[in-house]
Amino acid sequence: MYILPRTKSAATITTTTTTRSRLAIVSIFVVVAWTWPAVCFSLPTIITANRDTHSQDTDATTTSTIASRSTSANMANGPLEETSDRLARWNGRWVEHKLGWHRADVHPCLSKYFSHVTDNCPSEQDKERRAEGLRWLVTLCGKTVDMAYLATREMTAHVVGVDGIRIALDEFAAEHKDLQIGPKTDQVTSANENYEVLAGNKISLLKGDFFALDESATGGRFDVIWDRASMVAIQPALREEYVQTISRNIKKPGGKILLVTIEKRTGTEEGISKGPPFSIPESEVRRLYEGQDWVESVTLLEEIDEFSDANDPEKSKRFISEGVTSMYELCFLILAK
Ligand SMILES: C[S@@+](CC[C@H](N)C(=O)[O-])C[C@H]1O[C@@H](n2cnc3c(N)ncnc32)[C@H](O)[C@@H]1O
Fold this sequence. Notes:
Structural class: alpha/beta
Strand content: 15-25%
Bound molecules: S-adenosylmethionine
CATH superfamily of the largest domain: Vaccinia Virus protein VP39
Oligomer: single chain
Shape: globular
Number of strands: 9
Number of domains: 2
Largest sheet: 9 strands, mixed
CATH architecture of the largest domain: 3-Layer(aba) Sandwich
Distance between the termini: 63 Å
Strand order of the largest sheet: 3-4-5-2-1-6-7-9-8
């Protein structure tokens, strides 16, 4: 279509030129008459060939545009780079296997308050949820054994763990073969992130930025969010954004957050403010959550003395050497309206 008009205007120019002299007209007439059959037969071929060449060019251009667009989209929207500012420090810890936060056993607050969170179902709505099975979110999950504990509870429908570092998720999969977490990686997408997914028996591990999480990536909101060594792991300036991410992903009404923070209660100013883990006392939990219009209540369930004889003295040594003289784990239950 595009080539035909161009061919017509070339013919018009040739006709105008012939007015200059009779000789020219005769010459042109002779030439045209002589070559006309050849032109008539060859023109469709030329047009078709040109059109084909043009359409091939167009297709090639379109294909390469799509290819480059999808490549750049993947780069822009793929899982947050492990070397990005937000994750580089954590990537280093996983690569060097410096996992001071990791516990070999299930966290005592999770096992102790599991029934409190799941059995205490006063409302009809809660009873219905229990019958369907609970959806758990484990924030900044690392390779915590708590995920295996949750995935193997009868009343669990599904557990989703999110971490930005692939090594963490691969190690968890290798250490919990019974959960049959396959090596195949799928992808799910939130508004701002593409997550790699490792799927297993009642569990999905998402690799990507926690702060971009939404229900289009996770397949729906959560009945319970287990947050241990997670909120304390992020930079204090990101806490409001962290709570917004929790807000986007918790079921309302009736969702529950079981949150464990660390409070460095006494010590030098420098020792207390150093992190991660960053100190989050009760007042800060209340400031962050009680101000939310979707929060029904914030309850402090328990304090655990981290420097007591019952705890591993090796763990305390690091904090004592940093100037901390008393430190507690605080366990909270937060209910959504
Ligand atoms: C202190 S570890 C806690 C792991 C786990 N909650 C536990 O109890 O063992 C913090 C984890 O958060 C991950 N992380 C930090 N920032 C993240 C982010 N923006 N998105 C996803 N994961 C992140 C790190 O890779 C690390 O595994």
